[in-house]
Every structure is written in structure tokens, then in C-alpha cells.
Design a protein that fits this description.
Layout (H helix, E strand, L loop, with lengths): L1 H19 L3 H14 L4 H27 L3 H14 L3 H27 L3 H14 L4 H31 L3 H14 L5 H19 L3 H13 L8 H9 L2 E12 L15 H15 L3 H6 L1 H6 L7 E7 L5 E3 L3 E2 L2 E12 L6 E10 L2 E11 H7 L1 E6 L2 E10 L7 E2 L2 E2 L17
Antiparallel strand pairs: 1-5, 1-9, 2-3, 2-4, 2-6, 3-11, 5-10, 6-7, 8-9
Length: about 425
């Protein structure tokens, strides 16, 4: 009880001191505390009423000042606080008189914000003004409709930029523009398109680093967004990155009838060989060299003993080397193949070296290197190099598993097994 009495006495003393200093907020706070501590005290109630009038008047004055410096939120707050501080009719009349001034100032500033397309602060001001004056509600509704239309236009502008970037296959940039649209307004058509563009960008990045499994997952997720119908890129790339067995074929090779130095590939010069050389020389002088070389008459005229012993050595992307059988011909037909699990984006190299071998050793006729996907996508290629007139290659889907070979052997061949003394060789 002593503590309570001391608290009441202290509040009374502080209230009086604040009155002397004309600090009406302080005095009103202490008087309000006294009334809550002693609700039945007429003296405390009278004190609160007296300082409440002073506090309310001060709040109305500060509300007008806040409105003049465009701090409308503070002005409306002080107006409400003034009305709550005192129910004195004169104070309530002053508040009612001040209200249109505060509302009008807020509406004027809101209109300036609207003219500058700064809709959120305009709507905030009109919302506060409409809470006091119902006649402001139509302006609030109009500002909200303008803001909605403005958001729609901004959203669609960003989304259309995303559409253009998507058509150009600039997927990361397209995703960024769609995300800009979503920051303007969540949802809408930009939401699935942003996911679609992000997955396509991830798929392309994975394909670039040859992570085919990650690329396939990303393209599949892109297709499942339902947005791939616009261009079908996701489905196309999903099909292209899928690893499938392809038979990489060496079909045939056609080489020049003579070595670059004019000598026969093998054997000795003979009247038949000299005749072929003469035909080539005459054709070259007449500008028909390439046509004649491609013709069958020169090849038919070359003696059999001068025809090269041709082998094609294939080096696969993983370093494995395989070789065809050796054919004694200027046009050797092999139809040999190896099955490789690959896809239409695999740009790893396949090297092919054509060699001639006889008792004097091995001579390189020519060599070519082609990317795996060039074969897969073209289906058939014809390439040439040095003395190779035409090396015909092919690729098609295979039912055999990866690593299967037909008409190819490991290169270089394994050394022959030694035969133990007294034991007949194994046949």
C-alpha cells in the first residue's frame, strides 16, 4: 500500500511539473496513468480532462504542421490522437475543422504521385484520406485501377522481352526477363515460362560440358512445364542428347592409282603402269585430272601387281584403335563398323588413317578426322585427303550393344603366341 501511494504521489508530482513546463504530452501521460490506477477518483479524472484538452490542442497544432511538411501519416495519426485525448466539444470541433485541410493536402500529394506513376504512395495517401472522408473513395478506386493497368503493362513488357530472347535461344537472359515480370506481379504466364527457360539454359549448359544425363533431366523438366509447344526445342534437344547405339561404318576407300611421287604403290614399273601414268599426265595437261582419276578406266588399266594393299585404321574417341582387313585394290570395299553409344551432340573426334603395306613397310595414304556427331547427323559422309580420293563413311542406329564390331580387328594386332619346343602349333 505504501508503494502504491508513493507511485500515485510521484505521478501527481510529475504531472504538475509537466504542466508548469507546458509539456502536455508528459502531463497527459501521467494523468492517464493516475486514472488507470484510481478509476474512481474524481480528482484524477478532472486532472486528466484538463491536461487532455491541452494535449489535444497541442496534437492538433502538430497535425497541421505535419500536413504542411507533407508528413501526412503523422498528421492523420496526430488528428486521431487529439480526438482520443479529449472529448471536449470545442476540441472535437477544432478537429472536425482541421480534418478537411489534412484530407485535401493528402489528396493533392496523391494526385501528384499518380501523375508521376508512383502509384503505391498515392494509394497509401488516398487510403488514409478515404478512412476519414468517404468522398475520396472514388479517387482511391481509380488510382487502384490505374495501378493495376500499369502493373499489367509493365509485366507484359518484361514478358514480351523474355519471349523474344526465348525465340533467339538466349535462355538464361529470357529467364531473367520473365523473373523481372514476376517481381512486378507474381503468377501469370511468365511463371511457367521462367521455369521453362531456366531448364533449357541448364540443359544447354550440361550439354556444353557433355554431361548428357544432366542435360536429359533438364530438357525433360523443360518439356514437362507444358511450354515446349511454342518451339519444340526441349523435345528436340531431349532426343538429341539421349545416348543410343550407333554403328559407325567404314564403307569404302578410293585412292589415286599412283603415289604422289609418280611411283607405283607396289611392284615395279611396267608398260601397263606407264600407260596409266601417261593417261594421268595427258588429263592433267587438259585440265581433266580430277575427272579422270574419278573414272573407272584408269583404275581398270592399272596392273593388279601395282594396286596398293589398303587398310583403314580407326581411332575412336576413347583411344581404342581398330583396323579393317587389308584389301588389294584402288577401291577397297569394307562395310566394317563399330557400335558406339553416342548422340547428335557428341563432337568427340574419330580419326581414320588409310595405309598401304607391302614387303617394304607401311606408307600412309592419307588421314581424316571427323566429329562423331557429323557422322550421326549426316548419316553418310565422303571425305578426302592427299592420295585418298574418297573415303566413304556412314552411321545409323544399331540394335547391337556398345562396343560391338564387325569386320574390324584390334590394332595393332596382338603378337603371335610362342610355340613350345616339340609341340605342334595350334591351328
Amino acid at each position: 500500500q505504501n508503494a502504491r501511494q508513493n507511485a500515485l504521489k510521484g505521478a501527481v508530482d510529475r504531472c504538475r511539473a509537466c504542466q508548469v513546463a507546458q509539456d502536455w504530452e508528459c502531463a497527459f501521460g501521467e494523468a492517464d496513468y493516475l486514472v488507470r490506477m484510481e478509476p474512481g477518483s474524481a480528482d484524477y479524472a478532472a486532472l486528466r480532462t484538463d491536461v487532455g484538452r491541452q494535449a489535444a490542442a497541442a496534437r492538433l497544432s502538430r497535425a497541421a504542421e505535419a500536413s504542411a511538411r507533407h508528413d501526412h501519416k503523422a498528421a492523420f495519426g496526430l488528428l486521431a490522437a487529439a480526438r482520443a485525448a479529449s472529448n471536449d466539444p470545442s476540441l472535437q470541433a477544432q478537429a472536425a475543422k482541421l480534418q478537411p485541410t489534412l484530407v485535401g493536402a493528402a489528396v493533392r500529394d496523391a494526385q501528384q504521385y499518380r501523375a508521376q506513376q508512383q502509384f503505391p504512395p498515392a494509394i497509401d495517401l488516398l487510403t488514409m484520406a478515404a478512412a476519414l472522408d468517404g468522398s475520396v473513395r472514388p479517387q482511391l478506386a481509380q488510382a487502384q485501377a490505374e495501378y493495376d493497368a500499369w502493373l499489367t503493362a509493365q509485366y507484359e513488357a518484361a514478358a514480351q522481352q523474355g519471349d523474344a530472347l526465348l525465340r533467339d535461344h538466349r535462355f538464361a537472359e529470357a529467364a531473367a526477363r520473365y523473373e523481372d515480370a514476376l517481381r512486378i506481379r507474381p503468377g501469370g504466364r511468365a511463371e511457367p515460362l521462367a521455369r521453362y527457360a531456366r531448364r533449357l539454359a541448364a540443359g544447354d549448359a550440361a550439354a556444353q560440358r557433355k554431361d548428357w544425363a544432366a542435360a536429359a533431366r533438364a530438357y525433360d523438366e523443360a518439356v514437362r512445364t507444358g511450354m515446349d509447344g511454342t518451339n519444340g526445342y526441349g523435345a528436340q534437344m531431349l532426343d538429341r542428347v539421349a545416348l543410343r547405339p550407333y554403328a559407325l561404318r567404314v564403307r569404302s576407300v578410293l585412292v589415286r592409282p599412283i603415289r604422289p611421287d609418280g611411283a607405283p604403290w607396289t611392284g615395279h614399273s611396267s608398260p601397263g603402269f606407264e600407260r596409266v601414268v601417261g593417261m594421268l599426265a595427258n588429263a592433267a595437261m587438259e585440265g581433266r585430272g580430277n575427272q579422270l582419276v574419278a573414272g573407272l578406266d584408269v583404275y581398270d588399266a592399272l596392273p593388279h601387281e601395282n594396286k596398293p594393299n589398303l587398310t583403314v585404321i580407326v581411332t575412336l574417341p576413347d583411344g581404342r584403335q581398330l583396323a579393317t582387313a587389308t584389301e588389294k585394290a584402288l577401291r577397297a570395299r569394307y562395310d566394317a563398323y563399330v557400335v558406339v553409344a553416342t548422340n547428335g551432340l557428341d563432337d568427340r573426334p574419330v580419326s581414320l588413317r588409310v595405309v598401304h603395306t607391302d614387303e617394304r613397310g607401311t606408307v600412309e595414304v592419307g588421314s581424316v578426322t571427323v566429329p562423331v556427331n557429323a557422322l550421326v547427323n549426316a548419316g553418310e559422309l565422303k571425305v578426302s585427303d592427299h592420295a585418298i580420293v574418297e573415303l566413304k563413311l556412314g552411321a545409323e542406329r544399331a540394335s547391337a550393344p556398345d562396343g560391338s564390331v564387325v569386320n574390324l580387328a584390334k590394332y595393332p594386332p596382338p603378337p603371335p603366341q610362342a610355340v613350345a619346343p616339340g609341340r605342334p602349333p595350334r591351328t
